[in-house]
Amino acid sequence: MPAGIEIFGFFTTEDVAGDTWKSKATAVFVVVVIATLVLLFGIGRLLKGQPDKFIDPGIVRNFNKRISSWLAMTTVLAASLLLDKTAIVIVFSLLSFWAFREYLTMTPTRLSDHRSLFWALLFFTPLQYLLVGLGREQKIFGQTYDVYNFYCIMIPVYASLFIPFRIALSNDDKRFLERSAKIQFGLLVCVYALSYTPALLYMKLNHYTPSGVAVPWEYSNVGLLFYFVVMVQVNDVMQFLWDKMVGRKIIAPKINSSKTWEGFFGAAVCTSLIGMLIPIIFYNQITPFQWFGSGCMGLIISVTGFAGSITMSAIKRDRGVKDYGTLVTGHAGVLDRIDSLCFAAPVFYHVTRFFLEQKPTDGIEAAVLLGTIL
User: Fold this and answer.
1) Could you tell me the maximum CA-CA distance found in the chain, to the nearest angstrom?
2) pLDDT exceeds cutoff 70 at 15
3) Cα 270 from chain centroid (whole Å)
4) Half-sphere exposure (CA, 13 Å, Cβ side) for 27?
5) Which of 46, 217, 318, 342 is the Cys-Cys partner for 193 at CB 3.0 to 4.6 Å?
6) Please, what is the average pLDDT of the chain?
7) 40-44 — which CB contacts under 8 Å span 24+ positions?
8) What percent of the chain has pLDDT over 90?
9) CA dihedral 198, 200, 203, 206 (to 10 degrees)
10) Span 226-250, mean pLDDT?
11) How far is CA 276 from CA 97, 125, 300, 373, in A?
């Protein structure tokens, strides 16, 4: 890949070093995931035709809706993987835009908030993804900067300060705090949190050898992104299955009557086990995690995904609605499907960054290690 692309004569984007975009292991992983979803889709259709006395039709219908919506979204993501990083960033920016729109539709605002909503939807949302899509290392006026330092604070700091300021300029003080908080929370969850998913593509990561030595990760980060999305899917389906099969103790009856402790722990265990299997099956070429680390990340995804699901359910109960929208045919709206993804993405990103991101001296240490071994 090219070392960099010059923009406007003074702004240079740097590609991730050593990132092999077309990875055979990633391609196989994508095919296996889509084939599995197609198989589950077919099984669901067969169960749909069974007599009601053998299986609850409501469970089958809900299962089919989940599988069909995830199959559609996974196919779109897989298609974007065939292009380049920019295409993936665009796909997630559109998801964010639509999810934020669904959220705002469900939480009515006043006429005086429209200019603030314009800034949130049409300025801060694309700006966040523009910063993510520029990559990590940028040269501005000859100096190299890490763009992470910009997009990690753009919405939590600058947007969070600007939104209430812009609402105040509208000269409408009725429910001022409530109106400001609604927009800020939606921007934080639907845009800022979700943007950490495509941001995974631009990380420079290490990989720990069996002897415990950190060396630069040599495979594509596309596998890491797809691994993360798949693990969120796995947790979502496992949570549903365990809830329906053995769920008894409801966690928060007034918030979500289908979420049980049995489902929570069952999904956490299954997601962790599947996470452990992926590095073993694909010979550590999908993610930089060893089997134990991948299992721990599966557990983190499970817990944070559950947090996202039940938090967004609380908002729906507060607003007296069942679903956020109806964009995904047969299964509510986009935000209903990516709520767990939104909560899991920033945690997954920062845990990965804390343990595996390369430090400035890592390349030198790896070279010294390689020289010692040779």
Assistant:
1) 71
2) no
3) 19
4) 7
5) 342
6) 84
7) 40/67, 40/237, 41/67, 41/68, 41/71, 44/68
8) 54
9) -160
10) 92
11) 34, 35, 13, 29
* Phi/psi of residue 207, nearest 5 degrees: -135, 130
Asked if the model's pLDDT at residue 186 lies above 90, the reply is: yes
Q: What count of Cα atoms within 13 Å lies in the side-chain half-sphere of residue 295?
A: 9
Tokens 């089997």 -> residue: 291
- Res 53: pLDDT: 61
Which of 169, 42, 5, 190 is CA-nearest to residue 105? 190
DSSP notation for 116-162: HHHHIIIIIHHHHHHHHHT-SEEEETTEEEETHHHHTTIIIIIIHHH
Is residue 99's pLDDT more than 70? yes
Selected residue with higher pLDDT from 72 and 167: 167
Relative to beta strand 4-7, strand 137-140 is: unpaired
Question: In this predicted structure, what is the pLDDT of residue 129?
Answer: 97
199: nearest Cα among 244, 148, 143: 148
Q: Are 325 and 333 in contact (CB under 8 A)?
A: yes
Residue holding tokens 């996974």?
74
